[in-house]
UniProtKB/TrEMBL annotation:
Catalytic residues (UniProt): D116, E181
Family to which this protein belongs: Belongs to the peptidase M20A family.
GO biological process: amino acid metabolic process
One Pfam family of this chain: M20_dimer
Cofactor(s), by name: Zn(2+)
Presence of the UniProt keyword Metal-binding in the record: yes
Organism whose genome encodes this protein: Canavalia gladiata (Sword bean)
Residues of the signal peptide: 1-36
Designated name of the protein: N-acyl-aliphatic-L-amino acid amidohydrolase
Enzyme class (EC, first level): hydrolase
Length: 452
């Protein structure tokens, strides 16, 4: 007779024997699955290394830069890269990795990626945003899976594979892993490009992040739109809620909102008509309205306030005339004759160091473009029409220095999920991206005809 828990089974009990056998089978299966899961966690593969990086919580407002830098530095040392930690602002490290080329006098390459991520709401996700959970069909769920921890690890995995094959670059190859991109990059890339350390790199060409491609063609970006934070304020005589008179603060603000809305519609109509992409027009969107006299249960409904304010997210294309935009705001959106005022907070440069629009050429005039395009094709890929990125990246700071930079993330047939709930990336897409970067790094680093 055998005792299993509180269950008694004897050889003479058919039902008992069956139940006992089923229990044993269940225990064996559970043990196997647990062992397999543990083995998967311990297995050192490109995907598990990616998952490890994703599990480091680098989301604002308290990104764990220290753990991220330590992990990436260890990965770099494991493949023989030189490492340097720069810190232009205390607590915000920048990790610079270098693979020396055999002709270091040639202009170098920079592959850029940011360490930080936007916040996530765990209760809105299918899987915890910092678990890097991998589903049975290979989708890895994590904040930063697309934006943009994938490319940092793909750079390293591509270099790992190239080194294993005995490849040696002619140019110096640098990987820059920077802080603060998600909040403007002012303490990261912006300070880096102004530093002596950056000048000494002698950068000839750079790649930075792009976006996923829902279709079969890889998207590539040659410029970013530039954000302005616009605040419009209105003043007027306060009064009783029952009175009707001209030029109250709310009336003046609403007139401005109508004017701004008409401008927005005129730009959006061009996009809807298929004459331009969203990123090729100036966008403006209201993000808040602030007015009224607060009370314990809301606002005083019988008082017309003396001040009212609205905020707008304004995005300018690289070719937008900033002075013309300022004139429009002053004359039409917030005219002083209606007791209006405004404040513009510029969130980055619109022109490079010699006054040119901040764009990278994607034609025969740019020899780097031709090499980039050929490398993508060699990896079995195809590029869609080059685009302006609707949002912003750290690429703008390098372009401001006159350095050609392309925004590129090798994720095709992938939904665009950056900053969204349930951000994820398919493992097969991630692995294919490593192959693409192998082609890019080998082609770009052995190209000798380009100079500054």
């Amino acid at each position: 007779m055998m005792r299993v828990g509180s269950y008694m089974a004897t050889p003479h009990s058919d039902s008992g024997a069956f139940s006992f056998s089923l229990l044993c089978l269940t225990l064996l299966l559970s043990s196997y699955l647990l062992s397999a899961e543990t083995h998967e966690e311990e297995e050192d593969t490109p995907v598990t290394r990616f998952q490890h990086y994703l599990r480091i919580n680098t989301a604002h407002p308290s990104p764990d830069y220290s753990s991220a830098v330590s992990y990436l530095k260890a990965q770099a040392h494991s493949i023989g890269l030189q490492t340097k930690i720069l810190e232009f602002v205390p607590g915000k490290p920048l990790l610079l990795l270098t693979w020396p080329g055999s002709i270091p006098s040639l202009p170098s390459l920079v592959f850029n990626s940011h360490l930080d991520s936007v916040p996530a709401e765990p209760d809105k996700w299918l899987h915890h945003p910092f678990s890097a959970f991998r589903t049975q069909n290979g989708a890895v769920y994590a904040r930063g899976a697309q934006d943009d921890k994938c490319i940092a690890m793909q750079y390293l995995e591509a270099i790992r594979n190239l080194k294993a094959r005995g490849f040696s670059p002619l140019r110096n190859v640098h990987v820059s892993l920077v802080p603060d991109e998600e909040i403007g990059g002012f303490d990261g890339a912006a300070k880096f490009v102004e530093s002596k350390e950056f000048e000494e790199l002698n950068v000839g060409f750079a790649l930075d992040e792009g976006q996923a491609s829902p279709g079969d063609e890889y998207r590539v970006f040659y410029a970013d739109r530039v954000p302005w934070n616009l605040k419009i304020k209105a003043k007027g005589q306060p009064g009783h809620g029952s009175r009707m008179y001209d030029n109250s603060a709310m009336e003046n603000l609403m007139k401005s909102l109508e004017v701004v809305s008409r401008f927005r519609e005129s730009q959006f109509d061009v996009v809807k008509a298929g004459k331009a992409m969203n990123s090729e027009v100036v966008s403006v969107n209201p993000v808040y309205v602030k007015a009224g006299l607060p009370t314990e249960d809301g606002f005083a409904m019988n008082v017309q306030p003396s001040e009212a304010e609205a905020g707008f997210d304004l995005r300018l294309t690289p070719t937008t005339d900033p002075e013309e935009m300022r004139r429009r705001i002053a004359a039409e959106w917030a005219p002083a004759v209606r007791n209006m005022s405004y404040e513009i907070i510029e969130k980055g440069p619109l022109r490079d160091y010699i006054g040119r629009p901040i764009m990278t050429a994607t034609n025969d005039s740019n020899p780097w473009w031709l090499v980039f395009k050929q490398a993508i094709e060699s990896a079995g890929g195809k590029l869609s029409k080059p685009e302006i990125l609707a949002s912003t990246t750290d690429a703008r700071y390098l372009r401001q220095k006159g350095i050609p930079v392309l925004g590129f993330s090798p994720m095709r047939n992938t939904p665009i999920l950056l900053h969204e709930h349930n951000e994820h990336l398919q493992d097969t897409v991630y692995l294919k991206g490593i192959e693409v970067y192998e082609s890019l790094i080998s082609s770009l680093s052995t190209f000798t005809e380009a100079s500054h």
